[in-house]
Amino acid sequence: FRNKNGFPTNWPVVGMLPALVMVLPRIHDYFCEIMEEFQLTFVYEGPWFTNMNVLATVDPANIHHIFSKNFGNYPKGSKFKEIFEVLGDGIFNTDSDLWQYHRKMAQSFIAHPQFHKFLVNKIWEKVETGLIPVLDHASQQGLVIDLQDLFERFTFDTICTIIMDHDPKTLRVDLPDLPSFKALNDIEKAFLHRHAVPVCVWKLQRWLGVGQERKYRQSWEVLDAFIYECLSKKKEEMSKRSASKERKSHNEVGIDLITLYMDEVQQSATFGSNRDKFLRDTFLNFLAAGRDTTSVALSWFFYLLTRNPHVLSKIKEELDSMMIHLKYHHDDGELKRSRLNYLSRNFEELNGKLVYLHGALCEALRLYPPLAFEAKVPIEQEILPSGHKVDPNMQIIISMYAMGRMKSIWGEDSYEFKPERWISETGRIKHQPSYKFFTFNAGPRTCVGKSMAFAQMKAVASSIICNYHIEPVKDHLVIPDISVILHMKHGFKIVVKRSSVHTKLGD
Ligand code: HEM
């Protein structure tokens, strides 16, 4: 499947498709090999007459050009919108004016100090009332648990709470299978299916209402029902409050995103009768953007810690040094509560001080970016900085997974998990340009939820590291799934033990 120069063989009629099919089960690693070998850019020739030519690139100069310098030439486009049609006219799926409108609103609400307060409060509430009880239960009963599943539940509950002021409580000891939680998983599978099969195939399946497309439609209905119910509850609550002229003080808990959006939408004449649809699209986009990305990042982070105990020790040292005065509690429960209280009460301050933890999270996000691929199609033909020509019949694929592992970008030790890479000589976080550390995208469409994600990851990471010891189940295979989101194919099976009381904090 490769010719003597190392290129995938370009066969008559079928092009390089056989080589691609052969490597599909290990596509992420294959991308790494081929990108390093071909100086970061490679043209894949698809079967004849299919318009399936692809330019795969991880060259930072190309990324900078596509995502920032000539951003206007690379919109999401109609194909993307068709595949992700359930997301409606939300921020992910739109271009031009409507996207700008979404973007401005999202940025201003996420930066709202009252929303930030709400976010931090709710994240810690979920840690204390959801995550810790489930881990304690597993520790007491000696259960094997799937940490990836736990994190998905954690992020689903927190994201629903912070954007819709509704906690579905999927993170409980009995781990319930709620329809809305499951529906989001099925929708994600359908996205992959629509990417993988020819358009005419999935469109026929959609028309017939069969296979993955049937599940897609059903999940769509479940999610709509869930979101519209949350919206109507919130509206009812808001109108009751304004009827009774009651002014709820937000100072204590802060303001959720739905209240900020509803206030804006009520006052704007732009929406007419489409207000509910706008809110539905907005919340579904946030839900899709914020759940699996953060949970997958946490899963790989803990996986890397179990394989790099020296990094875990350094994170513990950093956390210990912040909580020095809590070392001498002797009652186990009391100690755990004190640590948690301390972390949650001082989170704002700690968030900026936990430099090593921040570096370790960035390092995990570099090696295992939650979104593994990004695709673009140019509107007009042009030459990229690498010298390759692209045109509207060509798809450009960027493998974030390969990009984070290139020796020519990150150095000879690019495969090593080294948080030190992110720390400057003065002990501060070293900034890396987004066209090099591409995990959160680059340019005008950079992830708007990055700081939200870091707040969640730090809260979860510090509470678990301070209170528990995690042991991966022996012989359980941890490998990335072949999907747009870099899930662990078989989850991350672990046993958890509460840290001993009598050892030094962090031992
Ligand atoms: C570790 C966690 C996360 C990672 C790695 C991540 C990564 C990304 C990436 C790569 C994009 C670009 C996607 C594209 O345009 O195709 C993106 C966009 C976006 N992200 Fe995140 N994200 C994370 C967490 C979050 C969270 C928690 C939220 C908030 C709920 C969020 C909200 C968004 C939104 C709204 C966009 C669309 C921005 C736009 O198109 O203008 N993300 N994110």
TrEMBL record:
A molecular-function term among this protein's GO annotations: iron ion binding
Family to which the UniProt record says this protein belongs: Belongs to the cytochrome P450 family.
Domain of life assignment: Eukaryota
Pfam families to which the protein is assigned, alphabetical: p450 (PF00067)
Classification via PANTHER family: CYTOCHROME P450
Name of the molecule in the record: Alkane hydroxylase MAH1-like
GO process terms (BP): lipid metabolic process
Organism per entry: Carnegiea gigantea
InterPro entries xref list: Cyt_P450 (IPR001128), Cyt_P450_CS (IPR017972), Cyt_P450_E_grp-I (IPR002401), Cyt_P450_sf (IPR036396)
Residue ranges crossing the lipid bilayer per the database entry: none
Binding locations of heme: 447
Coiled-coil segments on the chain, per record: none
UniProt keyword terms in alphabetical order: Heme, Iron, Metal-binding, Monooxygenase, Oxidoreductase, Signal
